[in-house]
Design brief:
By secondary structure, the chain is an alpha+beta fold. The protein is built from four helices and 13 strands. Strand 9 and strand 10 form a beta hairpin.
């Protein structure tokens, strides 16, 4: 007669439920979540780096290319004189366009503004393009005559532009960033000479964003 107790005592029982419970323990779940977050952050960082290398914007370039002086009435000498400076701005980016907002333009002599601030219209600068702008400022005859008297033929003026811009790459626009442009130029001014006046040498412009 076979003793069933012996067979029963020799049987090995594997608890599969115990292994499943340990695999899906809170500690393991937290580890999986942390690893997933790390992988996502790495992928996002790599994507951002690629986009930055592909679309990183270069600062626009500015150059003063012309100047003129006008009398705003027919009296002689004119009661009010106007100064015009023509500048061109170039967007060197092939994939990024530029939106200018709230641009103000001034003309400085030495460290003092000689014109009131002039509000320029909003400007959308397409990719790889050049735009010419010719603002005109009123200047009193006393200030103008003082410039000509202080300088012998070539007057050092500074064109200053301040405002905000946004970059646009595809359908994505950045937030507004402050922009400051200062262009130094020598202008040939003479008493009694109106109309186009020569530039004495190329302008030197600095752009800070």
């Amino acid at each position: 007669m076979v003793n069933d107790d012996k067979h029963t005592s020799g049987t090995v029982i594997v608890d599969h439920n115990h292994n499943k419970t340990s695999y899906y323990s809170p500690k393991n779940i937290r580890g999986i979540i942390c690893a997933t977050i790390v992988v996502i952050l790495i992928l996002v960082g790599i994507t951002a780096l690629i986009l930055w290398l592909l679309y990183r914007p270069h600062n626009p370039r500015f150059t003063v290319v012309g100047a003129a002086v006008y009398g705003l009435n027919t009296s002689s000498p004119p009661v009010i004189t106007a100064i015009q400076l023509t500048f061109i701005t170039r967007n060197p980016n092939n994939r990024v366009s530029i939106y200018y907002d709230h641009l103000l333009a001034f003309v400085y002599y030495q460290t003092q503004p000689i014109t009131p601030p002039l509000i320029l219209p909003p400007l959308h600068h397409e990719t790889d393009s050049t735009v010419a702008v010719s603002p005109v400022w009123p200047v009193s005859p006393a200030v103008f005559n003082g410039l000509v008297t202080d300088e012998a033929g070539a007057v050092s003026l500074r064109l200053v532009l301040t405002g905000r811009l946004r970059w646009k790459a595809g359908g994505i626009k950045t937030g507004r960033k402050g922009v400051y442009v200062a262009c130094d130029v020598l202008v040939g001014l003479k008493l009694g000479v109106l109309g186009l006046v020569p530039l004495v040498g190329p302008s030197v412009c600095k752009v800070d964003i």
